[in-house]
């Protein structure tokens, strides 16, 4: 899974900013997600911004108290070169439609088309692109509306709704009230393949009612088969439980988790992709192994330092070679 976060988008733009021609007068974003990339670029280059339809109507956005540069144009008619920005292209259809709309704008020979993320097949639709990012792929800024959610696993608490407070999480009356009235965080517009939650199986009816009430579409709901909150806490298996099912589901390629340590654990145990909404980071096999290795290295160093004060030299060497294996 090629997953790009907003942080990735920002870095990709910054790393490639020098490739944008210096004589651009206006930045135009293709709604909706192209506006995110266009806004970043217009701010970094201190240039006027517009969206596609407004540009066609001859309108620029107002710019607040932004200090204009010496080449700032005050109207579209003054522009000699325009940068039209799309965040990504999967089939090329959006860029084809965009070019068709702009044919009659009078700027046909003055427009440069930039697509941030292209595939090998859609490179041809861009005058300029920043990265080849092939399928399967998703982006943080629009994954909730991706048809590919059929192949994605979601946690519920902290992802679709807010987490319960300590007071609400009593495995009793207050928790039942929380389940029935949990505050919605996001509502995906596409059907989710699998909801995998550490909520207990006995709360299935309450959970299903909340999902229906909030218009969240899904195909499977997998809950923890324990009886009490105490059993769940004692097992300490939240991440392991989710990873077990995610690993078995061969048609899935992404897990959406809210808690950082669980996201790392799920990625490490399954060797599959995880996106953590709690810290807006993406985890896959490579960085989950790296993080585990870093933690082990730090732990081993602490043990070595302690051993220096306690054990003789020969015992320290034995520990390093046969126990810590460093």
Describe the model.
This protein is an alpha/beta fold and 326 residues long. It is 38% helix and 19% strand. It contains eleven helices and 13 strands. The protein has helices at 6-16, 34-45, 52-56, 93-102, 173-181, 204-213, 229-235, 238-248, 260-270, 285-310, 313-323; strands at residues 2-4, 26-29, 49-51, 82-88, 111-118, 128-132, 137-139, 152-154, 192-200, 218-224, 254-257, 274-276, 281-283. The strands form three sheets. Strands 10-9-8-11-12-13 form a six-stranded mixed sheet. It has a five-stranded parallel sheet with strand order 3-2-4-5-6. The longest helix has 26 residues, at 285-310.
Spell out the key features of this protein.
326 residues, alpha/beta, six-stranded mixed sheet, five-stranded parallel sheet, 11 helices, 13 strands, globular
Total of DSSP H or I helical runs spanning 4+ residues: 11
> Shape from CA axes?
globular
Overall mean pLDDT stands at 90
Radius of gyration: 25 Å
Structural class by helix and strand composition:
alpha/beta
Biggest sheet layout: 6 strands, mixed
Model regions low in confidence, pLDDT < 50 over at least 5 residues? none
Q: What topology, given as strand order, has the largest sheet?
A: 10-9-8-11-12-13
Order of helices and strands: EHEHEHEHEEEEHEHEHHEHEEHH
Range of helix content: 25-40%
**Separation, N- and C-terminal Cα atoms:** 33 Å
Per DSSP E runs of 2 or more residues, the count of β-strands stands at: 13
Beta-strand content: 15-25%
